[in-house]
TrEMBL record:
Its EC number is 1.4.3.5. Its cofactor is FMN. Transmembrane segments: none annotated. Keywords: Flavoprotein, FMN, Oxidoreductase. GO terms for molecular function: FMN binding; pyridoxamine phosphate oxidase activity. Catalyzes the oxidation of either pyridoxine 5'-phosphate (PNP) or pyridoxamine 5'-phosphate (PMP) into pyridoxal 5'-phosphate (PLP). Belongs to the pyridoxamine 5'-phosphate oxidase family. One of its GO terms (biological process) is pyridoxine biosynthetic process. This is pyridoxal 5'-phosphate synthase. Residues 5-94 form the Pyridoxamine 5'-phosphate oxidase N-terminal domain.
Length: 169
């Protein structure tokens, strides 16, 4: 993930990758962040975010590309992400050739046309906290659907069109 702001969650990838092709067909995605602790008390938590996906502007993609380390820019430029590769040597030769071509660090590596960002515009957040009793805590924040009526015993109104609810484990 490259950025989080009021508009959503931004990640960058190769637009020719399987992931990007799938997003072009179905512009919906979910993000999952899960963490535990290896020391001290066990922490079992996760946040799942669901929403629609849009491509970010070329200017935003350029900004992210040029903020990356030079080696990552080269890797992004030479990789045909998710496509078959004859051997590791083919990839390393392509990498070394590109390094040689752009050995002068004053020369910018051009951002490839096939690389850029996507933004997940959230419509649902689910916060989960595991419990040793298996009575996990689950709280959902979601955008209220147009025309949807709610039961205030279960669904609570937040701000900016959001509601929140507690779910069974």
């Amino acid at each position: 993930m490259k950025e989080v702001d009021k508009r959503g969650f931004v990640f960058c990838t190769n637009h020719l990758s399987r992931k990007a092709r799938e997003l072009a067909e179905n512009p919906r995605a979910s993000l999952l962040f899960y963490w535990t602790s290896n020391s001290g008390p066990t922490i079992s938590r996760q946040v799942r975010i669901e929403g629609t996906v849009e491509q970010v502007s070329e200017a935003e993609s350029n900004k992210y590309f040029y903020s990356r380390p030079r080696d990552a820019q080269i890797s992004n430029s030479i990789s045909e992400q998710s496509s078959l590769l004859q051997s590791r040597k083919v990839l390393e030769d392509r990498y070394n050739s590109f390094v040689e071509e752009y050995r002068d660090s004053n020369i910018n590596i051009p951002k490839p046309n096939h690389w850029g960002g996507f933004r997940v515009i959230p419509s649902r957040f689910e916060f989960w906290q595991g419990q040793t009793s298996r009575l996990h805590d689950r709280i959902v924040f979601r955008k209220l659907d147009e025309g949807e009526t709610i039961n205030p015993d279960f669904t609570h109104v937040g701000t900016d069109g959001w509601v929140y609810e507690r779910l069974m484990p």
